[in-house]
Design goal:
It comes from Methylobacterium komagatae. By secondary structure, the protein is of the alpha/beta class. The chain has eleven helices and nine strands. The chain folds into two domains: 162 residues, Rossmann fold; 120 residues, Orthogonal Bundle (N-(1-d-carboxylethyl)-l-norvaline Dehydrogenase, domain 2). It has a six-stranded parallel sheet, sandwiched between helices. A three-stranded mixed sheet has the order 7-8-9. Helix 2 links the parallel strand 4 and strand 5.
């Protein structure tokens, strides 16, 4: 039974996940939520949740959950100068909720196993709203027995919790999910300006693509924001781009042709080259608006 949990990465996704871990479930567990920035610990008050900027408080944790920006940060946190992997209890499990790459997961998992710790790559999908509601989709890669041991904890914040296969399978699944989402947004970015340039009303067009057969989570989230000219609410383009890079690496290593993905990647790259990296994915519409001399606004 896991009674001592440590959690690192208290952003928009991590903070609510840490709260769910501490407050849900039949078996009580103490969750120590660490961040070097005390400001990020504000608002984390909950039963059995200890917010701290003292790294020593996580010593001996039986499970460590990470929700960090990318694989490089995960590796630095675990194995860097002040790496915390060796602070964990013998036989502890590291659960990485971050979005990294298939190769990252394999490398990190093998290194942890060499040190006597287990690893589960368990990226999540569902955005901050899903994290707040505790309804995230959790895609896990790792040994079946490790997944079985951690599943009760994962279900505290996940509405759909799946074991996708061996080490790396979770990150591979997240890459597939994100790339399909990214392709959808890239298609909206180039087709909507064309439709407006041909004389269609943006607001009415928005109603069609959010209610008709082309509707998707991408259209329902981004089209209303595009119509308002709001491009700063979602995950930044520059950070999201890593999903397409990850897919390209898998394709190159295995000789898989991905022509549609390559085209969507070019759309991302165009927006990035024009300086929209700090804006959300909906900002991919901006280069096409400029090219056609139109605005997709309600």
């Amino acid at each position: 039974m896991i009674h001592r949990i440590a959690f690192l990465g208290l952003g928009a996704m991590g903070a609510p996940i840490a709260r769910h871990l501490a407050t849900k479930g039949e078996s009580p567990a103490t969750v120590t939520a660490y961040d070097a920035d005390p400001a990020r610990l504000a608002g984390l008050d909950a039963p059995r949740l200890v917010a701290t900027s003292d790294l020593a408080r996580i010593d001996g944790a039986q499970a460590l959950f990470l929700c960090l920006p990318d694989g490089a940060v995960v590796e630095a946190v675990l194995f860097g100068r002040d790496g915390i992997a060796d602070r964990l209890a013998p036989g502890a499990v590291v659960v990485d909720l971050s979005t990294t790459t298939h190769a990252d997961a394999l490398r990190i998992g093998r290194r942890l196993e060499q040190g006597g710790r287990a690893f589960l790559d368990a990226p999540v999908s569902g955005a901050p709203a899903g994290a707040e509601a505790g309804t995230l989709t959790v895609m896990c890669g790792g040994a079946p027995e490790v997944f079985a041991r951690l599943r009760p904890l994962l279900e505290r914040f996940g509405g759909t919790v799946l074991h996708m296969g061996p080490l790396g399978a979770g990150q591979l699944t997240k890459t597939v999910n994100n790339v399909l989402y990214d392709i959808n947004i890239a298609a909206l970015a180039e087709v909507l300006p064309m439709a407006v340039a041909m004389g269609l009303d943006p607001a009415q067009l928005g109603q069609v693509v959010t209610t008709g057969t082309s509707r998707s989570y991408a259209s329902q989230y981004f089209v209303p924001r595009i119509l308002k000219g709001e491009f700063d609410e979602g995950y930044p383009l520059a950070k999201a781009y890593k999903d397409l890079v990850s897919a390209a690496l898998v394709a190159a290593e295995n000789g898989f042709p991905l022509p549609v993905t390559a085209a969507a990647t070019a759309t991302y790259q165009t927006a990035l080259r024009q300086g929209h990296g700090d804006r959300d994915k909906g900002a991919m519409v901006l280069p096409f608006e400029d090219l056609l001399g139109v605005k997709v606004r309600g």
